[in-house]
């Protein structure tokens, strides 16, 4: 069996990539506002904790992209007779890049809205002892030079409750 921290990140990846869910959600939100937003394809959603600089140079990831990884595991022993009862923090780092600062600055909000909408629609049991309560946190980073001109990112962190023997 995969380590819980990898399995938790894989659960979030499957949520975003299954049936092109993130791509469809972005298209729906953009359409509702008559905006043009570059899609994030399933190949641009990866399990990786690589920084933007490292991913640009060594992994050759394209923009926009989502990098998913577990950032922490806490065994709180809420269920006394389980070997592991606690939370796994999973981060989805969303990256947008554009020729203009205003492009990256606008697109990042569409991507975050689409990803968090999918989280809100999938509260509950995710199988394999994982449960998503609906709680998440978003932190936006200011734009900077990089990517195809300018790059901006946001970290979406959700805590998955886990119960395992």
- Which CATH architecture would you pick? 2-Layer Sandwich
Average of pLDDT: 92
Note the overall shape: globular
CATH topology: Alpha-Beta Plaits
The percent range for helix content is: 25-40%
Describe the protein's topology:
Layout: H1 4-17, H2 21-32, E1 45-47, H3 52-59, E2 65-75, E3 84-98, H4 101-121, E4 124-127, E5 130-140, E6 144-146, E7 149-164
Parallel strand pairs: 1-2
Antiparallel strand pairs: 2-3, 3-7, 4-5, 5-7, 6-7
Helix pairs in contact: 2-4
Structure description:
With 165 residues, this protein is of the alpha+beta class. The protein has one domain: Alpha-Beta Plaits (2-Layer Sandwich), CATH 3.30.70. The chain is built from four helices and seven strands. Strands 1, 2, 3, 4, 5, 6 and 7 form a seven-stranded mixed sheet that branches. β4 and β5 form a beta hairpin. α2 (21-32) packs across α4. The longest helix is centred in the C-terminal third of the chain and has 21 residues, at 101-121.
In short:
With 165 residues, the chain is α+β, with helices and mostly antiparallel strands. It is 33% helix and 38% strand.
Considering the chains and any ligands shown, give keywords for the structure.
165 residues; alpha+beta; Alpha-Beta Plaits; 33% helix; globular
